[in-house]
Amino acid sequence: MRPVLLTFLLGTSLLRAADPTESDYYPIQPIPNPDKLVLEIGALTHTPDGRIFAATRRGDIFTVKNALGPDVSAATLTRYASGLHECLGLAWKGNSLYATQRPEVTRLTDENNDGRADVFETLSDQWGISGDYHEYAFGSDFDRQGNLWVALCLTGSFSSQTEYRGWALRVTPEGLTLPSVCGLRSPGGIGYNAEGDAFYTDNQGPWNGSSSLKFLKPGSFAGHPGGNDWFKVTTEIGDRPPNPNDNSRMVKERERIPTLIPPAVMLPHARIGQSPTAIICDTTGGKFGPFQNQLFVGEQCYSNISRVSLEQVNGVYQGVVIPFVEGFGSGIIGMTLTPDGKMFAGGSDRGWGSRGGKPYNLDRVVWTGKTPFEILNMKAAPDGFTLSFTAPVDPASAGNPASYAMEAWTWAYREEYGGPEVDQVTPKITAATVTPDGLGVSLRISPLTKGHVHYLNSSGVRSAAGVPLLHADAYYTLNEIPSP
Could you give the angle at the alpha carbon of 478 between the alpha carbons of 476 and 480, nearest 5°? Predict the structure, then answer.
């Protein structure tokens, strides 16, 4: 029996080496909750002294201490504030916590240092609220000018019944509120890239065939006309944009609506998820692994996190989304990433349900120090795409066009809710050229279709050590094709 057992163990070892799992690199570690606090997390942030603040949809804010050490079981939760109205944004500055509630941005300060907020001050409340369930308000961290951004959902899916619903506002340090971007539908989170530009996630619905990540350029139109009546009360961002033509295409409507900016990255419905949420950028300098300056995007329905890499082509943001980590206990809504490379993510299944199966969760994700074999980046080229990898590739597999497959499609730009993938194209991969250092591949593609998502499956690629990609799927939104 010993030779058989030895053979079995060796086979198991080889199988594990050939089939790595996400937890080998980024394990999910639940934060202890012995008091069974209802942690329907809506927002998370961190402070310079190592505290994590966790706000809930039920209006509580908790302080999480001792959560950065090697043993997550040492973390503790204490109540910092209560009585807020569905807090979906947190930021720390000076000695105060800034919370975006459904009706306002509030500054909370613990003046007597007893661990609980003593002073609650309204920084901004310059938007409407009707009581409609859909009127969420998502808040950001501070931008490079010291402003907070607030992304406001519409009233329902189609209309804006109270002031600035369907807009993104900026709130200055003095409390001045600046209407900045129109055309939002149903934001799920807001954050910044490494350059400091603001982005938000919008959910599938009217004028949104699929969920997406969108650039919040001041003065721009994000695509849903439902809130544009509020141009009647603001002169901050110019004239009201024309309404889009129903059942058109985004690439076509861009030509006739000058302020319309296409989604930077489409998050294909039922492939990546169904309800994207928080956005955080890896600025840890490698403490969270090889994905420096890339974005991580939470997902409520699918209880996962995806990874996004952006670039600008012809002055327009576009890029790729790749799966990152799945298997959280509930639907992710709030996220934060500390300077030492600890990611915290939490959420709830209330309203839409989630794959996680639990009513709420608060988890930590750490990097084990092992580097997964992944597509590090995918960038557009005049005749295809260039790929970079986190480890050298096997030239035989990576240089074989048969190791890859591609599909391309878009969605109708229409008032009707959501919609199927349309205008399908099957691009042909005519060449795959490995770079001399083994860390990249150039793919020649024909045709490239402007405005389409180009889905790449690279399941035939192996690393130089013979390991398959941890995630072989990548979805690139080709808003612009680079010039030769």
Answer: 150
Judge whether residue 11 has pLDDT over 80.
no
Residue 14 above 80 pLDDT?
no
Strands across the sheet containing 187-192: 187-192, 198-202, 211-215, 265-267
pLDDT in tens, 140-161: 999 999 999 999 999 998 999 9
DSSP H/E element including 16: helix 2-18
Same domain, 56 and 183: yes
| 362 and 379 assigned to the same domain | no
Determine contact, residues 448/427, Cβ cutoff 8 Å.
yes
Alpha carbon distance 347, 345 (integer Å): 7
Torsion of CA 77, 80, 83, 85, to 10 degrees: -80
8 Å CB contact between 397 and 426? no
CB atoms within 10 A of CB 174: 8
H or E element in which residue 129 lies: none
Locate 409 and state its tokens. Answer: 């499609």
**Is 132 exposed, middle or buried (CB count within 10 Å of its CB: 0-12, 13-18, 19+)?**
middle
Instruction: Judge whether 445 lies within some domain.
Output: yes
- Tell me if 349 sits within 8 A of 379, measured CB to CB: no
The two structure tokens encoding residue 148: 């907070």
CB-based contacts of 85, cutoff 8 Å, min separation 6: 59, 101, 102, 103
At which of 340, 366, 392 does a domain end?
366
Question: How many domains does the chain fold into?
Answer: 2
Whether 3 is covered by a domain: the verdict is no
- In the sheet with 96-100, reading across from the earlier edge strand, the strands are 90-93, 96-100, 105-109, 119-124
351-398: pLDDT as tens digits: 889 999 999 999 999 999 999 999 999 999 999 999 999 999 999 999
Q: Both 381 and 361 in a single domain?
A: no
User: Cα 10 from chain centroid?
Assistant: 40
- Cβ within 8 Å of residue 392, ≥6 positions away: 437, 438, 439, 463, 464
Say whether both 338 and 399 belong to one domain. no
The answer to whether the beta carbons of residues 443 and 387 sit under 8 Å apart is yes
Tell me whether the omega of the peptide bond preceding residue 70 falls within 30 degrees of 0, making it cis: no
What's the length of the chain? 484
C-alpha 83 chain-centroid distance: 28
Domain presence at residue 13? no
Q: What is the largest CA-CA distance in the chain?
A: 83
- Domain enclosing residue 206, as ranges: 22-366
Supply the pLDDT for residue 464: 98
Residues 349 and 204 in one domain: yes
